[in-house]
Design brief:
There is one protein chain. The chain is an all-beta fold. It folds into four domains: 97 residues, no CATH class; 168 residues, no CATH class; 104 residues, Immunoglobulins (Immunoglobulin-like); 99 residues, Immunoglobulins (Immunoglobulin-like, Sandwich), CATH 2.60.40. The protein has two helices and 42 strands.
């Protein structure tokens, strides 16, 4: 609703620009703002529950007021913006709202398409997760993707997976404008000198089955057989799950079935890979998991009212202002943002109470979750690499001071993330490299001497080893190389045992080193590799000596008087 007709450059009146019916008409302008439309604006919105549209409210309240196409001239404006003392007057300018309660109505941006059909309605991994291949995953920076009428939640960055499995290699040169290719049964296309290698075909297949790899990275494919029996051969291979995280080209083999299948000489299962594989949670946000064909459009969700690219949720933004006879103050906007954290160095055994100062922390502890850990490449919380700071409390009525009790952990550096949820509102704030855990300290080893050529078990005492076995490794560093503890067994935050296998090339003389933390847990930190407190020494085993003495004496017969001196007689 537009109030007043004060011209293009209204100025503050000499009497202090009181808020009232006399002065609003003149376009009181205590802040000296240049209103390009020549009018002042006080706007409000009336939203009806369950209605698809909202109505702008007018400040006009008298019979002499006029509103034409939502441009109102108020002869007698009210003193309360947007409300005529409980009897709001509406304009004819309507605003239609998108029903954000239905995730399929959220705006989305077409980004890429499926490079591999999705043939199953369930995730093939634990927790309902599955792997899908996109034509291009470089533009996927959103937490959620839309495929037809299914939403999927993206877990982590893209990696390598298997797009297809072939039985023949392509050789030769195609006709101009064509490409050489081989079918699953060895038929070449592309013209020219295109051919498939080997020329022989497999035999003996009596049944179909499944394909897999010796790496537990999720790959799964099925195959069917034509002419089962002595002349049976594989006539189709369908990749059900491309897998995720392969470093190189995986070796494919028959996992189940395929009885009697004998590959031709030089024939192997050839994996064609793609680096645009993403791990997703199927059927997210109440949608239904479905099958999808190759080439189906994939869109990323453009969250309604989001402030940043990866902060989802329908959100309500509030602003506050004060007013008196001189006019309105500047608006104060409140956001969700972390200001400070104390302390930043956390004990490895946990139990430390930390205090966080922030804006918008809320007043209900149950709505807030605090994490120490890491974020995914798209900016969202990596829940698999983060731990919660429990026993959250809100220390004031404004939600600006939070406290929580830290978990036991290790690591060189972790982010602080505060997640607020209330209904459909979700806000996440973070501080990069906010906290760290102390580096481990090795104070003594026992025994300090071990026998050469034998297995040695060393007890290590120190500090800050943590409480998680998978976060700790150990080794001995010698002048001829380094040998790991196999294993290093963690017994507490202050002690561990290291088993050193016998090795003729690397003696057990050197300094023991304990490494705490991994890339997963924020980075490794090591004890120092020098000093008497960490040194052990190898000693030779006990010697067994056999001596042969030459006897150059005459035997004295029994009963002879000459034996008397030796017998004490």
């Amino acid at each position: 609703t537009l109030i007043g007709t004060a011209g293009t450059s209204p100025v503050a009146s000499s009497d202090g620009c009181k808020i009232g019916i006399t002065y609003w008409q003149e376009g009181c302008n205590v802040k000296n703002v240049a209103y390009t439309a020549g009018v002042r604006s006080h706007q409000g919105l009336l939203v009806g529950a369950g209605k698809p549209k909202s109505i702008w409210l007018s400040n006009c309240g008298s019979s002499g007021d006029t509103c034409t196409s939502a441009i109102c001239k108020c002869e007698t404006p009210t003193m309360m913006p947007n409300m005529d003392f409980g009897n709001p007057v509406t304009t004819d300018n309507l605003m239609y709202l998108r029903g954000s309660g239905d995730p399929l109505q959220w705006s989305n941006v077409p980004t890429t398409s499926l490079a591999l059909a999705i043939t199953t309605t369930v995730g093939t991994n634990v927790g309902g997760l599955g792997n899908i291949i996109l034509d291009d995953a470089s533009a996927v920076d959103a937490s959620y993707l839309r495929i037809d009428d299914e939403l999927v939640y993206v877990h982590g960055a893209a990696s390598r997976g298997v797009l297809a499995v072939n039985l023949y290699q392509v050789t030769g040169n195609p006709d101009t404008g064509s490409t050489c290719a081989c079918s699953i049964v060895g038929n070449s296309t592309g013209g020219g000198s295109c051919a498939c290698f080997p020329q022989e075909v497999m035999t003996g297949c009596t049944e179909g089955g499944t394909l897999g790899t010796d790496q537990a990275l999720g790959f799964h494919a099925t195959f069917t057989v034509a002419n089962p029996g002595a002349g049976g051969y594989i006539d189709s291979i369908t990749v059900v799950d491309p897998g995720h995280g392969f470093i190189g080209i995986p070796e494919i083999n028959i996992a189940t079935g395929g009885t009697g299948c004998t590959l031709a000489q030089y024939q192997v299962f050839l994996a064609a890979t793609s680096s645009s594989v993403v791990k997703v949670e199927r059927g997210a946000l109440g949608t239904t998991a479905a099958t999808h064909t190759v080439g189906t459009s994939v869109s990323k969700i453009d969250w309604p009212l989001r402030g940043t690219a990866n902060t989802p949720g329908t959100q309500y933004y509030f602003r506050m202002a004060a007013y008196n006879d001189a006019g309105l103050s500047n608006y104060q906007y409140y956001e969700h943002a972390i200001s400070e954290l104390s302390p930043r160095l956390l004990p490895t055994f946990g139990g430390q109470t930390v205090e966080i100062t922030m804006e918008g922390g809320g007043v209900t502890p149950a709505n807030t979750t605090i994490y120490f850990g890491h974020r995914l490449v798209n900016g969202s919380i990596d829940y698999n690499r983060s731990k919660t700071c429990d026993s959250v409390t809100v220390a004031d009525i404004a939600g600006t001071r939070l406290t929580c009790v830290t978990p036991p952990w290790v690591g060189k550096s972790h982010d602080l993330m505060v997640e607020y949820k209330s209904g459909i509102i979700r806000r996440v704030s973070y501080v990069t490299n906010a906290v760290n855990y102390p580096a481990p300290v090795l104070s003594s080893v026992f025994p300090v001497q071990v026998i050469a050529g034998q297995e040695a078990v060393i007890t290590i005492a120190g500090l800050h080893f943590g409480l998680n076995q998978t976060d700790v490794i150990g080794a001995i560093r010698t002048s001829t190389g380094e040998k790991p503890c196999t294993p290093l067994t963690l017994t507490s935050d202050t002690s561990a045992t290291c088993t050193l296998k016998a090795d003729p090339l690397i003696p057990h003389t050197g300094n023991l080193v304990v490494g705490v933390g991994t890339t997963w847990s924020g980075g490794q930190q090591n004890t120092t590799a020098s000093g008497i407190e960490s040194r052990i020494k190898e000693i030779d085993p006990p010697a067994e000596v056999q001596l042969t003495l030459a006897v150059d004496i005459e035997t004295i017969p029994e009963g002879s008087p000459a034996r008397a001196p030796f017998l004490g007689g």
